[in-house]
Each structure stands twice: as C-alpha cells, then as structure tokens.
Amino acid sequence: MKITIIGTGYVGLVTGACLAEIGNDVFCLDVDQRKIDILNSGGVPIHEPGLQEMIARTRAHGRITFSTDVKASVEHGDVQFIAVGTPPDEDGSADLQYVLEAARNIGRYSNGFKVIVDKSTVPVGTAERVRAVVASELEARGLAVGMTHGFSVVSNPEFLKEGAAVDDFMRPDRIVIGIDDDAAGQIAREKMKRLYAPFNRNHERTLYMDVRSAEFTKYAANAMLATRISFMNEMSNLADRVGADIEQVRRGIGSDPRIGYHFLYAGVGYGGSCFPKDVQALVRTAGENGQNLRILEAVEAVNHDQKEVLVEKIVKRLGADLTGRTFAVWGLAFKPNTDDMREAPSRRLIAALLARGAHVRAYDPVAIEEARRVFALDFADAPEALARLAFVTTQDETLVGADALVIVTEWKEFKSPDFAHLKSVLKTPVIFDGRNLYEPLAMAELGIDYYAIGRPYVQ
Ligand code: NAD
User: Fold this and answer.
1) Atom number of ligand 1 nearest to Cα 12
2) From atom 44 of ligand 1, which residue's Cα is the shortest distance away?
3) What is the pLDDT of residues 384-393, one digit of tens each?
4) In this structure, are residues 157 and 215 in contact, taking their beta carbons and an 8 Å threshold?
5) Of the listed 274, 282, 329, 453, which one is catalytic?
6) Domain segments of the chain as ranges
7) Which CATH architecture has domain 2-209?
8) What is the pLDDT of residues 276-299, one digit of tens each?
9) Ligand 1 touching residue 178 (CB < 6 A)
10) Could you give the C-alpha distances from 152 to 51, 98, 107, 348, in angstroms and in order?
11) Which residues on neighbouring strands pair with residue 430, listed in sequence order?
C-alpha cells in the first residue's frame, strides 16, 4: 500500500519503518530539514533499538523515502498518518497546531480519496476538527467532498514504548482503530484492515470502536499507568517512614493477578514526552467538561514531588549547602534504551544539585548529546551553574574523586558494577539510588552507604 507518514519523530519514524519493513511503499515527511538530511544521509536522528538497521534495509529496497516536500507527500499516500507532536500548551491542554497544519496540507493537496489517520495522541473530538479543516480546504479548492475527493478520519492511537518501540509496533498487544460508521468510514475500515492484517495473523488484535472512544482510550491507558507509578511512589515514601521495604511489598502485591507485576516500581517519578503531558491534557479535558479528575490531579502532584525525593535524601546526608561537593550521576534519559530527555527526572535532580553549589559529572550510554542540548537551554541564563556540569564518556570517569554516586536511570549496564572498584575510586563510598538497583544488605556488607527509594538503610 502507499502510505504517507507526517512527522518523523519517535512515533512517525518507527511507524514508517515498520510499515515499510512489511512491504508497503512509505513516504515520510517532516518540516525539520535537519532530520530529513540526517535520514537521507543514512543516519537516524533518534536512538531506538533496531530502527537504524530497519531503515537501512527498507531504503536499500526502495520502500521508504524521506522528504520535506508537502505536496508530494500528500499525493503519495492513500493512507496519511498524522504522527506530529502534540506538546502541552501553557494551560496543560494538548497543542493541536501541528496536527491541524498537517490536516490543512492534506486538504490543500489531496488528489483522491484519503484515509487520514490520527496517530498522534489527541484529545477527544480532534478527529472532528481535522475533518472540518480538510473539508474547508477542499471547498476552498472548489472540490465537493464526495468519493473522488473524499476522505475519512480514523483514530489509531499508538501504544509503543520508547526503547522498545520497534518490537512494540511489530508485536502489538492491541491495535485500536476508531472509525466512523458511514460510507467513507467503510472504505477506511477496509484499508486499515488490509494494512494491519500482517499484525493479526495469529489472532485478531484489532479493536474497532467509535472515533471518540479510540481517542479517549489512549489517554485512559497512560493515565492508568501514571497512576500506578504515583501510587507506588507514595507507598515507597510511607515505607521509608514506617521502616518497610517497598521491594518486598512490590513482590507481595504483584503476585496478585488482579494487580500484576508490571509498572509497580518505585523511583524518582515518571518523565518522558507522554505521561506528564497526557495526564495534564486529560485533567484539562475534564475541566472543560465540568468534571474534576481528582485522582489524576493527585497523580500529577505526587509525581512532581517525587522528583525531589532523591535530593531530599542527599541533603539529609550531606547538608543543604553542597558547595565543593562532586556528584557522579548515572543515567540522563527519562528511561533506558532511549535518548529522550523530555521531562527526564535527571533534569530536576541535576538542576537541584547545581543550585546548591555542587559539581556534577554525568554519564548516559546514549543521551549525552541530547542532554548537552537540553541543559544548555535550561541553563541559558545561568552559565556559572552550567560550567559545574560535565558530561563524560564512561561510567567510570564520573566516579573518580566524587563524594557520592547518584543513579537516575535504570540502564542494564548499571545493574552490576564492580563495587570494590567503585568504592576505591569514590572519595566517600555513598550511593543514592533512584531506581532501587541494589540490595541494601549487600551494600552494607561491602561498606557502602546506600540510600534507595522506600528501602531501609542498613548500617
Ligand atoms: P516528536 O516530537 O519526536 O516528533 C514529531 C515530529 O513531527 C517532529 O519531527 C516535527 O518536526 C514533525 N512535524 C511537526 N509538524 C509537522 C508538519 N506539519 N508536517 C510534518 N512534520 C511535522 O514526537 P513523538 O514523540 O513521535 O510523538 C508524536 C505523537 O505521538 C505525540 O502526539 C505523542 O503524544 C504520541 N505518542 C508518542 C509516543 C512516544 O513514546 N514518543 C508514544 C505514543 C504516542
């Protein structure tokens, strides 16, 4: 099938590459010339396991193209995926300007029947706004909306996880498709069915529903996941106070199948481009509809405070003034296997350490370049503080002479370091672990002062 993907970010690029991998003819459009240049010179602008190889393969077979040519992109695809960003507006609602611009372009250059697929995460009712924009552009061109220049707007939210995006797209738990119950909707349904057939070979994973329910499903899913995280974080803070071990509690409750083990880890709060903005947007949607989402308001507030918990532990141990102290920081990306720094807890933590006068030496396996960029922006007005932040290229380099190690992201390579070596190169053997990677008792036996989240301190 001929597919156009609008937006070559984490979602668009993975969607485009995976659909090309199974044989489709994919045209990827972006307005960002830099990204398109990188892609056309054989690079990949983001880190996502397996993506580079897949793009190289499909390019070699001529099944994927990257361009900034809007007209050519609209003319190419019978199916047009909108996968542009929907960042939070100042009031927390989703900013739809990029989605509506993509819709405008489709109406402006449409050359036949188009299935327009909202893959971006968009609030309930957005498909109707996309429909109105496309129809008005077609009308401005003097084209009556019929079957020749017709279109149908489909909601097909994406559930992939950064860091495992290719795998998630290729082996989805479910495919949600919201479709209108009219003649154009029927055509769209057939096309979507054909497009996703290879993903449904063993058993049907597609859930067809009305458009509004599909739009809502994405927000409800992220809201539920964010709720589990904030719940466990709040439990971990109580565990700290009452002397319980949140890791044992996690195993104790996860074994109940009604609860399950997934997404039950206490830590330094959720980040990334999705949970924070989607929770905010849903709270906003509820407000506009006369309802308070009290649980989600609390989920957000708990998450905000949780990003300070590690700093509080550091201050309790080392004092409020950290001038002259040096911290080794392991992990910058908001989670492992990605270079995404959006809302990453490391940003708040490092900012707090710098604000208290500390020096920071930070390492991340893939996010250093992106971290350098975002910290330069975050600290544009504070060059003196920024000068106290150094990025180094190995885990080991962070440690030499540091007053403590702080772990922010649970990369696999941080899970089993050489503790004897670590202890010998740190100035003082102290670890503040925001991801509960180690056993408190084992750390005590090694003579390491170990502070985790919701786990007892063992002397
Ligand atoms: P992103 O910021 O990585 O990428 C968006 C891309 O769209 C950018 O490259 C931008 O230049 C491009 N763009 C903007 N306007 C454009 C236009 N008019 N025409 C062509 N390109 C345009 O965003 P992302 O992380 O891929 O997220 C995209 C959407 O998918 C968001 O709504 C997000 O909430 C949702 N989503 C993201 C994830 C994730 O893990 N990142 C998962 C599921 C859903």
Assistant:
1) 26
2) 158
3) 999 999 999 9
4) yes
5) 274
6) 2-209, 234-451
7) 3-Layer(aba) Sandwich (3.40)
8) 999 999 999 999 999 999 999 999
9) no
10) 30, 19, 12, 43
11) 449
